[in-house]
Amino acid sequence: MRRMAHSLDLVFSALGDPTRRAILSMLLEDDMAVTDVAEPFEMSLAAISKHLRVLTAAGLIQQERRGRVTWCKLQPDSLRGASIWMQSFGQFEAVELDAFELFLARQLGDGPDAPTGA
Hints:
Blueprint: H1 2-15, H2 18-29, E1 32-33, H3 34-38, H4 45-57, E2 61-66, E3 69-74, H5 80-87, H6 97-108
Antiparallel strand pairs: 1-3, 2-3
């Protein structure tokens, strides 16, 4: 159980960064060289390499050296544990967001039918 929790921590931590999510989206298309991954971002190759190390440590990508070029490949199965964990919350009915927003507005006194102070 502790091992799975650590794995989930790594995955969710990796997914918590928008640059890393963008990299994963790019790798959905095909394997890419590190330099190609870095191209659309306005940051150094060293900074991109740090992001790639986080993704690799989480098991979300695999890096492979082919000659002088390092290639990145998506490892979609690594999201399986996180997906199963999130699906366990699917047993609860989805919250109607409009109704929830109205409820909060009433409770906070910001909307129609807001409680009046005594």
